[in-house]
Amino acid sequence: MTDPRKARIRRRRLVAAAGLCTAIAWRVRRRRRPAYDLAGRTVLITGGSRGLGLSLAEAASDMGARVAICGRDAGSLERARSLLERRGAEVVAFPCDVRDQASVQQLIQSVRTRLGPVEVLINNAGVIEVGPAAAMSLADYEEAMDTNFWGVLHTTEAVLPEMRARGSGRIVNITSVGARVGVPHLIPYSASKFAALGLTQALRSELAAEGIAVVAVVPGLMRTGSPRNAIFRGRHRAEYAWFSIADSLPGLSISAKRAARLILAGCARGDAEVRFPLSSWLAAAANGLAPELTSLFLTFAARLLPRMDPTTGRRFSGRESQSPVSPSWLTWLGDRAARRYNQIAPQEPARV
Question: To bridge 193 with a disulfide, which of 31, 135, 176, 281 should be the other Cys (CB 3.0-4.6 Å)?
Fold first, then answer.
């Protein structure tokens, strides 16, 4: 008679071998898959007037794409358009609030008129609210969902008919490691990014048969200068200090330029998910393999973050939340990125 224990071991080995062969075959197929060349294509980048969006616009134009950017602030949008044109980019810029479906429809029509139908959509527009859960209002959650989820859905729905008619296209959704791991003091942001990642994964499965690749980008911290335009609640100066310092540290964060290159490379390959830097991989893997241990670690981290200040009910921008700790030498790389990627108006002082 066959030993049941040995039979189970053999079955497990066969399953493991089959899984390994499948992974190798998928990897080989992925490497042989022809890249989606951006040269001569129309690329629309939401939130393209500053930060990561501006870096993506620069990288896409360097690859020969026709670039359209949009944003809510007319001043930063015009500065971004001018910066890109000086680099030799073929670029158009349109004001748009991605939370408003009618505004998005007008944007897509304007891009079509000036550059042609959108062939690559990069959903980058987003908002960040930082602070303890006790300091957040329902409006903070609504704002996060309106921009980080509904904004993605509005633009996606607007470009899909023409992509389906052509039988090709790319949709790239910038989510966050906060879409894989619920991050304390970033709850509205994290919740909305979870929703965006779920939308991205489900759409990818349905649209693949129509020649449209939907790519999820799951980044960790990036040096884009974004803390200056984030929203802070509670002990807002302390919240800004930890967030801006973490966002600036080499090793923990990645440069906007490198992030843009990795994202566009993943777009060209049609990857299911683009994840960086190493901290993003480790956090997602830890949460998947050991959720209890990850929860304990996050609980400990939450205790180190600023306590709730019951006397403060206001929202503050990053510009209003600076202190002797930040900006400082600890945030030098992030502050440099803020100026490089249009987070600071030319007339605005480095310190407030």
Answer: 176
List 36, 189, 240, 341, catalytic entry: 189
Q: Number of H helices and number of E strands within the chain?
A: 12, 12
At 333, list the tokens. Answer: 């790389």
Structure tokens at 255: 């440069």
Domain of residue 123, CATH code = 3.40.50.720
Q: Is 189 labeled as catalytic in the residue annotation?
A: yes
Sheet with 316-317, edge to edge strand ranges: 129-130, 231-232, 316-317
Instruction: Put residue 3 in one of left, alpha, beta given phi > 0 → left and psi -120 to 50 → alpha.
Output: beta
132 falls within a domain? yes
pTM given for the model: 0.89
| Residue 250 falls inside a structural domain | yes
Best CA proximity match to 250, nearest among 281, 278, 285: 278
What is the tens place of the pLDDT at every residue in 105-139? 999 999 999 999 999 999 999 999 999 999 999 99
Does 34 have pLDDT greater than 70?
no
Instruction: Give the pLDDT confidence of 248-267 residue by residue, as tens digits.
Output: 999 899 999 999 999 999 99
Confirm whether 46 is domain-assigned.
yes
Q: Give bridge partners of residue 275 from the DSSP assignment.
A: 218
The total domain count for the chain is 1
